[in-house]
Amino acid sequence: MLLTLNLPHILDYMTAASVEAIHAGVGDELERGAKLLDLKVDLTAGAAHDCPPISYYRILLRERARLTALGVSCGDEPLVGAELARFASLAPETGEGAEGRPARVAIAAIFGPDVWD
After folding, report:
1. Which of 29, 57, 59, 63 is most buried, judged by most C-beta within 10 A?
2. CATH number of the domain to which 14 belongs
3. What total of structural domains would you count in the chain?
4. Can you give the residue range of the structural domain that contains 18?
5. Is 46 within 8 Å of 15 (Cβ atoms)?
6. pLDDT digit string (tens) for 1-46?
7. Cβ contacts of residue 8 below 8 Å, gap of 6+?
Protein backbone atom coordinates (compact mmCIF):
# COMPACT_ATOMS: atom_id res chain seq x y z
CA MET A 1 0.00 0.00 0.00
CA LEU A 2 1.24 3.49 -0.86
CA LEU A 3 1.80 5.77 2.13
CA THR A 4 2.51 9.47 1.82
CA LEU A 5 3.94 12.06 4.18
CA ASN A 6 3.02 15.70 3.65
CA LEU A 7 4.38 18.56 5.75
CA PRO A 8 1.94 18.85 8.66
CA HIS A 9 0.68 22.12 10.11
CA ILE A 10 2.50 22.02 13.47
CA LEU A 11 2.00 25.55 14.80
CA ASP A 12 -0.36 28.50 14.27
CA TYR A 13 1.06 30.97 11.72
CA MET A 14 3.30 28.24 10.26
CA THR A 15 3.46 28.33 6.46
CA ALA A 16 6.68 26.36 5.83
CA ALA A 17 9.52 24.56 7.59
CA SER A 18 13.20 24.10 6.89
CA VAL A 19 14.53 20.55 6.58
CA GLU A 20 17.47 20.40 9.01
CA ALA A 21 18.30 16.67 8.91
CA ILE A 22 17.22 13.55 7.05
CA HIS A 23 17.60 10.29 8.99
CA ALA A 24 16.47 7.73 6.38
CA GLY A 25 17.40 6.96 2.79
CA VAL A 26 15.39 5.74 -0.17
CA GLY A 27 15.09 1.95 0.01
CA ASP A 28 15.48 1.79 3.79
CA GLU A 29 13.07 -0.53 5.61
CA LEU A 30 11.99 1.43 8.67
CA GLU A 31 10.61 0.10 11.92
CA ARG A 32 8.04 1.76 14.16
CA GLY A 33 9.66 4.72 15.88
CA ALA A 34 12.24 5.31 13.14
CA LYS A 35 13.48 8.89 12.80
CA LEU A 36 12.60 10.45 9.43
CA LEU A 37 13.25 14.19 9.38
CA ASP A 38 14.20 17.09 11.64
CA LEU A 39 12.49 20.38 10.87
CA LYS A 40 12.97 24.00 11.91
CA VAL A 41 9.87 26.19 12.13
CA ASP A 42 10.55 29.93 12.12
CA LEU A 43 7.56 32.14 12.91
CA THR A 44 9.50 35.42 12.78
CA ALA A 45 7.58 36.74 9.77
CA GLY A 46 4.15 35.72 11.04
CA ALA A 47 4.05 36.70 14.69
CA ALA A 48 5.69 39.28 16.94
CA HIS A 49 7.73 37.81 19.81
CA ASP A 50 10.19 38.97 22.47
CA CYS A 51 12.61 36.21 21.51
CA PRO A 52 13.29 34.41 18.23
CA PRO A 53 10.20 32.26 17.58
CA ILE A 54 12.16 29.32 16.22
CA SER A 55 11.45 25.73 17.23
CA TYR A 56 12.62 22.31 16.10
CA TYR A 57 10.67 19.12 15.51
CA ARG A 58 11.40 15.52 14.61
CA ILE A 59 9.03 13.41 12.53
CA LEU A 60 8.98 9.73 13.53
CA LEU A 61 7.30 6.85 11.73
CA ARG A 62 4.58 5.00 13.68
CA GLU A 63 4.39 1.97 11.39
CA ARG A 64 6.72 -0.32 9.47
CA ALA A 65 7.39 0.89 5.93
CA ARG A 66 10.01 1.10 3.19
CA LEU A 67 10.96 4.61 2.06
CA THR A 68 10.40 4.66 -1.72
CA ALA A 69 10.81 8.37 -2.52
CA LEU A 70 12.10 11.45 -0.73
CA GLY A 71 10.78 14.78 -2.00
CA VAL A 72 13.09 17.06 0.01
CA SER A 73 16.76 17.62 0.75
CA CYS A 74 18.50 19.26 3.70
CA GLY A 75 18.00 23.00 3.51
CA ASP A 76 14.75 22.81 1.54
CA GLU A 77 11.81 24.87 2.82
CA PRO A 78 8.63 23.06 1.78
CA LEU A 79 5.24 24.67 2.34
CA VAL A 80 2.65 23.14 4.66
CA GLY A 81 0.94 20.32 2.75
CA ALA A 82 3.88 19.67 0.40
CA GLU A 83 4.77 16.01 -0.10
CA LEU A 84 7.90 15.11 1.85
CA ALA A 85 8.12 11.36 1.25
CA ARG A 86 6.42 8.22 -0.04
CA PHE A 87 6.52 4.78 1.50
CA ALA A 88 5.42 1.23 0.80
CA SER A 89 3.70 -0.39 3.77
CA LEU A 90 5.40 -3.45 5.26
CA ALA A 91 2.26 -4.42 7.17
CA PRO A 92 0.08 -7.28 5.94
CA GLU A 93 -2.56 -5.91 3.57
CA THR A 94 -6.20 -6.09 4.61
CA GLY A 95 -7.58 -5.29 1.17
CA GLU A 96 -8.98 -1.94 2.30
CA GLY A 97 -7.49 1.36 1.20
CA ALA A 98 -5.33 -0.12 -1.55
CA GLU A 99 -5.20 3.31 -3.21
CA GLY A 100 -3.01 4.63 -0.39
CA ARG A 101 -3.28 6.81 2.68
CA PRO A 102 -1.19 9.17 4.80
CA ALA A 103 1.65 7.54 6.73
CA ARG A 104 1.16 7.35 10.49
CA VAL A 105 3.71 9.62 12.12
CA ALA A 106 4.48 11.26 15.44
CA ILE A 107 5.91 14.75 15.83
CA ALA A 108 8.17 15.54 18.76
CA ALA A 109 9.63 18.88 19.78
CA ILE A 110 13.42 18.65 20.05
CA PHE A 111 16.29 20.91 21.08
CA GLY A 112 17.93 22.96 18.34
CA PRO A 113 21.37 22.35 16.82
CA ASP A 114 23.12 24.61 19.36
CA VAL A 115 22.84 21.72 21.86
CA TRP A 116 23.20 18.78 19.42
CA ASP A 117 26.95 18.36 20.02
Report:
1. 59
2. 2.40.50.100
3. 1
4. 2-115
5. yes
6. 899 999 999 998 899 999 999 999 999 999 999 999 999 999 887 6
7. 59, 80, 105, 107
